[in-house]
Amino acid sequence: MIVCVAVVGHQNNPLYIQSFTEADDALKLHHIVHCSLDVVDERVNNPKKSGPLLNETFLGLLYPIENFKVYGYLTNTKVKFILVTTDLDVKDADVRNFFRRFHAAYVDAVSNPFHVPGKKITSRTFAERVSTIVKSFGLTSAV
Amino acid sequence: MIGVGKIKQYTNVLDKPLTKGKQEVSLSAFAFLFSELVQYNQTQVDNIGELERRLEDAGYAVGARVLELLCHRDKGNRRETRLLGILSFVHSTVWKVLFGKVADSLEKGTEHEDEYMISEKELLVNRFISIPKDMGTFNCGAFVAGIVRGVLDGAGFPAVVTAHFVPVEGQQRPRTTILIKFAEEVLHREARLG
């Protein structure tokens, strides 16, 4: 169950945060996403020799907190995608696939000439595509 | 860029592959649009420097979006961290997507360490434009310079990019050169990376 997805700009400013649970814990999710930014920076600045390459976009599992798992993805323009999920067994390929489609939706949203880079993403189409991708993530990973 | 590509109809928009980037736009449509852009900006400004700056700003927005699109479409999972890497990316991939061919040449400047030049025999945007004598050294390639600046800025390599005419003997029309001057921090970072 994906709880929340977030897009964070290259100056660590939030561009898009969407939660998919009915519970009213938006503040906690914001806090989790904010903490994960530090982990992303740490991964980027001190690459583990045995870990991902210096210029790999998918960062993998960032850190587990309470009953959530947080995954990260860094694009070429230092824009970060954060995924918070409560699934216990999440296949790596599924998360990569999710981020690939999410990146495609993000690129389409940014290509909008009326979108100002650095401001929040207000496109309704983007929000709809993101919820479609999130729904299909649950289906493909269900065994 | 001449010709109209065929578009395959997909029922579900999520299935449309982002990698099918071979659709072409007609050259005359682009030339008309660009000439209108230049004319519109000409009515809004008082001097040539301002006109050049406006064209460059228009190109900057295009460059930022082109970078996002190309990184997702062509580059897979790689992120450019080296100077030569990003320069060859601009020189081949970006040029190929925008103009249908790679740029003519990429050179390193001899006087300064932080200068690089991409030159082209004739920029596509300048093909149907002739500059009147009283506009001096104005070059509509400022639009392309803005695109390059947008790409470099988005990738984390701040630079000052300008377009110049370079006269070549034996040819009537001068060659166009895009001059890229990187900021101090880029060179320091590059030296640190070794």
TrEMBL record, chain A:
<dbReference type="GO" id="GO:0005737">
    <property type="term" value="C:cytoplasm"/>
</dbReference>
<dbReference type="Pfam" id="PF04628">
    <property type="entry name" value="Sedlin_N"/>
</dbReference>
<dbReference type="GO" id="GO:0006888">
    <property type="term" value="P:endoplasmic reticulum to Golgi vesicle-mediated transport"/>
</dbReference>
<dbReference type="InterPro" id="IPR044760">
    <property type="entry name" value="TRAPPC2L"/>
</dbReference>
<dbReference type="InterPro" id="IPR011012">
    <property type="entry name" value="Longin-like_dom_sf"/>
</dbReference>
<dbReference type="InterPro" id="IPR006722">
    <property type="entry name" value="Sedlin"/>
</dbReference>
<protein>
    <recommendedName>
        <fullName>Trafficking protein particle complex subunit 2-like protein</fullName>
    </recommendedName>
</protein>
<comment type="similarity">
    <text>Belongs to the TRAPP small subunits family. Sedlin subfamily.</text>
</comment>
Automatic annotation (TrEMBL), chain B:
<dbReference type="GO" id="GO:1990070">
    <property type="term" value="C:TRAPPI protein complex"/>
</dbReference>
<dbReference type="InterPro" id="IPR024096">
    <property type="entry name" value="NO_sig/Golgi_transp_ligand-bd"/>
</dbReference>
<protein>
    <recommendedName>
        <fullName>Trafficking protein particle complex subunit</fullName>
    </recommendedName>
</protein>
<dbReference type="InterPro" id="IPR016696">
    <property type="entry name" value="TRAPP-I_su5"/>
</dbReference>
<dbReference type="Pfam" id="PF04051">
    <property type="entry name" value="TRAPP"/>
</dbReference>
<dbReference type="GO" id="GO:0006888">
    <property type="term" value="P:endoplasmic reticulum to Golgi vesicle-mediated transport"/>
</dbReference>
<keyword id="KW-0256">Endoplasmic reticulum</keyword>
<comment type="similarity">
    <text>Belongs to the TRAPP small subunits family. BET3 subfamily.</text>
</comment>
<keyword id="KW-0813">Transport</keyword>
<dbReference type="GO" id="GO:1990071">
    <property type="term" value="C:TRAPPII protein complex"/>
</dbReference>
<dbReference type="GO" id="GO:0005783">
    <property type="term" value="C:endoplasmic reticulum"/>
</dbReference>
<keyword id="KW-0931">ER-Golgi transport</keyword>
<dbReference type="GO" id="GO:1990072">
    <property type="term" value="C:TRAPPIII protein complex"/>
</dbReference>
<comment type="subunit">
    <text>Part of the multisubunit TRAPP (transport protein particle) complex.</text>
</comment>
<dbReference type="InterPro" id="IPR007194">
    <property type="entry name" value="TRAPP_component"/>
</dbReference>
<keyword id="KW-0333">Golgi apparatus</keyword>
